[in-house]
């Protein structure tokens, strides 16, 4: 049970911002929200993660709703290389390890 | 810099045959190690994780087992493969401690059981 819900697919035009939504209404107070992306036949690549506050890094921004039941990954200017499956993941701690529960993800298509 | 290796890259095995997939990490010590499986068109499923040599936690009852004989070596095995074991197997590592959030994935092994 992935416990996150994402649209199956989205399209964006190159050089435009992309907002990828995710619902995680059953998230517990100690679960982190992680985003990874995956190109075909490759392992996933870490994008960003957060707990309660919005987060920014060189790849993207993560906006987390105040009630933590949803979040949005923001790619500020989509490029063709951003075309991938984006996974919104509930991550919880188990001892010193972090367990990731992957869902089906959103296939992002970037149009030139 | 850290690197993670998996082999073989692809594997075709008959039903009932044994399996051994190997994962090694370079450039770090005492990492957390993970095995995931991805069925066609699906997300990743965590199979096993390890926080140290000889310490294995299993997430899903299955036909597979894992071992960690050395600090940076993680092995996925099966005595008898099933058709349902086909998939894309990914090994990952992360650091231990406050910065343990990012997992770094290997290139994967695509297993086809016939």
Please tag this protein with its features:
heterodimer; A: 112 residues; mainly beta; 6-stranded mixed sheet; 4-stranded antiparallel sheet; 10 strands; 52% strand; globular; B: 114 residues; 7-stranded mixed sheet; 11 strands; 0% helix
Give the topology, please.
The complex is a heterodimer of chains A (112) and B (114).
Chain A: E1 9-13, E2 18-23, E3 32-38, E4 45-50, E5 55-56, E6 61-64, E7 70-75, E8 84-94, E9 97-101, E10 106-111
Chain B: E1 3-7, E2 10-13, E3 19-26, E4 32-38, E5 44-52, E6 55-58, E7 65-70, E8 73-78, E9 87-94, E10 104-105, E11 109-113
Parallel strand pairs in B: 2-11
Antiparallel strand pairs in B: 1-3, 3-8, 4-5, 4-9, 5-6, 7-8, 9-10, 9-11
Number of strands of chain A: 10
Q: Provide the residue-averaged pLDDT of chain A.
A: 90
Strand elements of chain B, count: 11
| Main beta-sheet strand count, sense and barrel state of chain B | 7 strands, mixed
The count of helical stretches of chain A stands at 0
Any overview of this molecule?
The complex is a heterodimer of chains A (112) and B (114). With 112 residues, chain A is an all-beta fold. Chain A has no helices and ten strands. Chain A has strands at residues 9-13, 18-23, 32-38, 45-50, 55-56, 61-64, 70-75, 84-94, 97-101, 106-111. In chain A, strands 1, 3, 4, 8, 9 and 10 form a six-stranded mixed β-sheet that branches. In chain A, strands 2-7-6-5 form a four-stranded antiparallel β-sheet, with no helix packed on it. The radius of gyration of chain A is 13 Å and the shape is globular. Chain B has 114 residues and is an all-beta fold. Chain B has strands spanning 3-7, 10-13, 19-26, 32-38, 44-52, 55-58, 65-70, 73-78, 87-94, 104-105, 109-113. In chain B, strands 2, 4, 5, 6, 9, 10 and 11 form a seven-stranded mixed β-sheet that branches. In chain B, strands 1-3-8-7 form a four-stranded antiparallel β-sheet, with no helix packed on it. The termini of chain B are far apart. The model of chain B has no long low-confidence stretch (mean pLDDT 91).
């Amino acid at each position: 049970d992935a416990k996150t819900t994402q649209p199956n697919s989205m399209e964006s035009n190159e050089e435009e911002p992309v907002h990828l939504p995710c619902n995680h209404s059953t998230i517990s107070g100690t679960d982190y929200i992680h985003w990874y992306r995956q190109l075909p036949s490759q392992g996933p690549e870490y994008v960003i993660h957060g707990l309660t506050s919005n987060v920014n890094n060189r790849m993207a921004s993560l906006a987390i709703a105040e009630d933590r039941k949803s979040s949005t990954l923001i790619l500020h200017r989509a490029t063709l290389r951003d075309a991938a499956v984006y996974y919104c993941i509930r991550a919880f701690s188990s001892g010193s390890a972090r367990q990731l529960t992957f869902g089906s993800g959103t296939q992002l298509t970037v149009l030139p | 810099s850290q690197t993670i290796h998996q082999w073989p890259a692809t594997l075709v095995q008959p039903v009932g045959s044994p399996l051994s997939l190997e994962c090694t990490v370079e450039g770090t010590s005492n990492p957390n190690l993970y095995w995931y499986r991805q069925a066609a068109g699906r997300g990743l499923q965590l199979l096993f994780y390890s926080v140290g040599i000889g310490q294995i936690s299993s997430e899903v009852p299955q036909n597979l087992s894992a071992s960690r004989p050395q600090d940076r070596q993680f092995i996925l095995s099966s005595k008898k493969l099933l058709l349902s074991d086909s998939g894309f197997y990914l090994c990952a590592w992360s650091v231990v401690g406050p910065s343990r959030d990012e997992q770094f994935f290997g290139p994967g092994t695509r297993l086809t059981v016939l």
